[in-house]
Design goal:
Blueprint (H helix, E strand, L loop, with lengths): L15 H7 L2 H4 L3 H17 L5 H20 L11 H13 L1 H4 L7 H36 L5 E6 L2 E7 H26 L1 E2 L15 H7 L4 E2 L3 H6 L2 H27 L7 E2 L18 H24 L13 H25 L1 E2 L1 H8 L6 H10 L4 H18 L8 H5 L9 H4 L2 H6 L9 H14 L1
Parallel strand pairs: 3-4
Antiparallel strand pairs: 1-2, 5-6
Helix pairs in contact: 3-4, 3-7, 3-9, 4-5, 7-8, 7-13, 7-20, 8-11, 8-20, 11-12, 11-13, 12-13, 15-16
Length: 457
């Protein structure tokens, strides 16, 4: 039992299978940098407060820095038999410094230590995710600026509904991602709270200075209750929830790209570098990137559910169940980063096919609402105008023509309010350009939307 930090209480070796089952180093080793940085801040505070000798504090700090350098360089490899990254670092420190290394854990528990490490890891990951989302936003804005007058059909129920522009459609996703950034920034605020000093659950009798550690590690504030400090995983769940919504938006965008690059739509074409072929059908060009993003969205939802179910029945304070938090949240983090890093260049390199969008917009009577509005502007109640326009659409279907090609006499059979100017009113360009209301598809409105997002990222 000499190898275990908690061996004094036990007289019998732990079964090897229990050791393997209990170990977390395979997935928590990624926190080594933050574990060491947290330990350096802790050792600094212990020395300054006179809890350990100042010279020993300095030796511990130098020892920790050397361990960090050796891990970074690859000189020091993680021991797969170690229980976790915290015990690995402390054991290595003790190996190098002897009894001095054993003083590091004074006034600290693994419970508050792991809470600190996870928070430090996730605040760094959150920053990186935000940076990746902002990069994707810039790609969307760039494509939108080039397609302010690219007319396409807007859809409801996957049926052609009203004319919009490709830029307008893209800006819908830009706004979704803007909200994702806001949620991630909010998550960061609640993650950036320092729990060290909570101890196992009841703080410590040593005269520690928690605020000093907080300042050294650049946290906004300290946790206010030691029980909560070690047992809180709200920040993991909140981040996973924000990531889940971000993945939902990427999945919805992916679904539209899958539709748009099909022969049935052919609004866009993906670059060959971001598509795959078939083992048997030589003509195929498959949007595997977007399909995988759809699939991985379900995986992240599973991570969120894992965290919620893990925490729902736990009494205070720390319970071993909470070791399961890291695999779930790290998987969600890694998955969304991988998706963003792949989706962004795929979008940036895709080819837009404006003529196909325009041709699709010319079909499906998507200017019917504008025809009804034309009559309303002539003084007719909207419901009457709606009924007349519906009748005109039925006539067009019977005659195999469109509202633009239907003869004026057919219009006048229903009301004399129609004149030659109806054809200008229902042209696709007019339909789009006149929708100048804030948030609408008119180029001037979309320009304002683009500037709005630019200012916020």
């Amino acid at each position: 039992m000499a190898g275990k930090m908690w061996a004094g209480r036990f007289t019998k070796e732990v079964d090897e299978r229990v050791n393997d089952f209990n170990s977390s180093i395979s997935f928590d080793a990624r926190m080594y940098r933050y574990d060491i940085e947290g330990s350096i801040a802790h050792a600094t505070m212990l020395g300054e407060c006179g809890i350990i000798d100042i010279d020993e504090s300095r030796k511990i700090i130098e020892g920790l820095k050397s361990i960090l350098a050796d891990i970074d360089s690859g000189k020091l490899q993680f021991d797969p038999t170690a229980e976790d990254v915290h015990m690995f670092v402390e054991a290595e420190l003790t190996k190098r410094l002897g009894d001095t290394g054993k003083r590091l854990h004074t006034a600290r528990s693994r419970n508050d230590q792991v809470a600190l490490d996870v928070r430090m890891t996730l605040r760094a990951e959150t920053k990186e995710i935000i940076t990746l989302v902002k990069k994707l936003e810039k790609t969307i804005l760039d494509i939108a600026e080039k397609n302010l007058t690219t007319v396409m059909p807007g859809y409801t129920h996957l049926q052609r509904a009203q004319p919009i522009t490709f830029a307008h459609h893209l800006m819908a996703y830009a706004n979704m991602l803007l909200r994702d950034i806001s949620r991630l920034e909010d998550c960061f605020k609640r993650t950036n709270i320092m729990p060290l000093g909570s101890g196992a659950l009841a703080s410590t009798t040593y005269p520690i200075n928690r605020q000093r550690v907080c300042d050294l590690l650049d946290f906004d504030e300290i946790t206010q209750n030691s029980l909560d400090g070690v047992s809180d995983r709200d920040f993991c769940i909140e981040l996973c929830s924000a990531i889940s919504m971000l993945m939902m938006h990427l999945s919805r965008f992916s679904e539209e790209i899958i539709l748009w690059c099909s022969w049935e739509f052919k609004f866009i074409e993906l670059d060959d570098a971001y598509a795959t072929g078939s083992s048997i059908m030589p003509q195929k060009k498959n949007p595997d990137v977007t399909e995988l993003i759809r699939g991985k969205t379900g995986r992240v939802y599973g991570d969120l559910n894992t965290l919620l179910v893990m925490m729902k029945g736990l009494p205070l304070a720390y319970n071993k169940d909470m070791q399961e938090d890291k695999e779930a949240i790290f998987d969600a983090v890694d998955t969304v980063k991988l998706c963003l890093k792949t989706f962004d260049p795929m979008l940036a390199t895709m080819k837009v096919i404006p003529e196909n969008m325009r041709n699709a917009a010319a079909k499906g009577f998507i200017n019917a609402t504008d025809c009804a509005d034309y009559l309303v502007k002539k003084g007719m109640p909207f419901r009457d105008a709606y009924k007349i326009t519906g009748t005109l659409v039925h006539t067009c279907i019977e005659k195999g023509c469109t509202l633009e090609t239907l003869p004026l006499e057919e219009y006048k059979k229903l009301t004399d309010n129609f004149g030659e100017d109806v054809y200008d009113a229902i042209s696709l360009d007019t339909c789009v350009m006149q929708r100048k209301a804030a948030g609408g598809p008119a180029p001037e409105s979309v320009k304002a939307q683009i500037e709005y997002v630019k200012e916020r990222i």
